[in-house]
Amino acid sequence: MSESSGSVSAPPHIRLRFAPAPTGLPHLGTARTALFNWLYARHCGGELVLRIEDTNADLATAAHINQILEMLEWLGLDFDGEPVLQSRRSALYDAAVQRWLDNGLAYLDDGAVRFAVPDDGVTAFDDIVRGRVEFPNASIEDFVVRRSDGSATFFVANAVDDLDLGITHVVRGEDLLNTTPKVLLLRAALGATDAPAFAHLPLIVNKQRKKLSKRRDDVSLTSYRDQGVLPAAMVNYLALLGWGPPDGTEVRPLAEIVELFDLADVNAAPAMFDMDKLTAINGDYLRALDDADFAAAIQPWVSAQPWGTHLDSTALSDVAPLIKERTRLLSDAPDRIAFLFAEPEIDPDDWDATMVPPARDILDRAGSEFARAEWNAESLHASLREIGEEFGLKLGKAQAPVRVAVTGRRVGPPLFESLVLLGRDAALARLAVAQARLAR
């Protein structure tokens, strides 16, 4: 057989294929499968084919296909050659079905065509992840290979394409394990004497150890992109869902992951998706950015705020370093710096917790000292430390009411650097507002 579009070259020693079904938003599991295929292909110096399973025209719309391509581009996963569209290969599938009919290996059934599975024997294969897997043929029903509308089923397209494209390794999710014997039977019925190496990846589960479900869990890759997960961080985290580097160092450059990755090291046990771990890894990647790149990274989220629409890059570059160390998601950034560009929203719980005696006196003394202090972090720090000592308080306790008055919250960026950026006039005005509120 030959590829009807003529876009795929002769296969190298190692050739894998990523074959997503474009029937919805890109799923975390789909992204993990794409990544593991890519990692193994690049680790082995092989080739990776992108094959789009778009034979169902009602589900596989152009929009869905574009979403898959955008997902792969965002993750930075490249492929070899042009994408192979199964919708353009129907002649190959029809020829295969006709061959089975002619050879008595398939039969008509109410307009559809079914493959006649042998009643005896076993269909078995060695799975790189799961070991030896066997299916008694008696347990496999005669399955449909061509629907009554004339379209080939998933099993046919996979058997024909893998054979025709010279696929040497099939890496996919565990949920497709039970389709493998059917594909192998069809492959053998086409005259194949060999089979690709299979690696069925473990399920991804949530913290309750239940399989990730779009009805219950946030499984859309787009959602995490929109929350501000960096693509490099997502790739690093997805690589850890079922695999781990032998030296235990989980956060590392992609080139090192490629060098270390091996399908033989993938664990068959379910892999738990942990949002806390993902955001922690994302935080590591954010801290590794220089200040200019971090400022550029948060810019889209800041620009979406009413106060950030016209914020110039210089102002953002000054502010960004204050929050880089504690930011885990880019979408968190605007909330952390909003007080510098708009009147703060005072958190009522933080107000009640901090505005207790001697808070009013501390604010009064801070207003007086800040009015004449040199406007730099060191001077402001020294002034507030001395005020705290007057009231028998450590700096952390003394600065709490000042922080809430100025920023609206007890926790935030470094206070004194923030005061410098906010400016003397704005800082004194906010202290005065808090004093007036306490005086009521």
Extract low-pLDDT stretches.
1-7
Tell me the series of helices and strands, N- to C-terminal: EHEHEHEEEEEHEHEEHHHEHHHHHHHHHH
Secondary-structure content class: mainly alpha
Any idea what the CATH architecture of the domain at 1-84 and 202-288 is?
3-Layer(aba) Sandwich
Query: What is the molecular shape?
Result: elongated
Helix content: 40-55%
Radius of gyration equals: 30 Å
How far do the termini sit from each other? 86 Å
Q: CATH superfamily membership of the domain at 1-84 and 202-288, which one? A: HUPs
Top CATH class of the domain at 1-84 and 202-288 = Alpha Beta
Number of strands: 12
- Beta percentage is 5-15%
Q: Give the number of helices.
A: 18
Mean pLDDT: 93
The CATH topology name of the domain at 1-84 and 202-288 reads Rossmann fold
- Major beta sheet, strand line-up: 1-2-3
Sheet of most strands? 3 strands, parallel
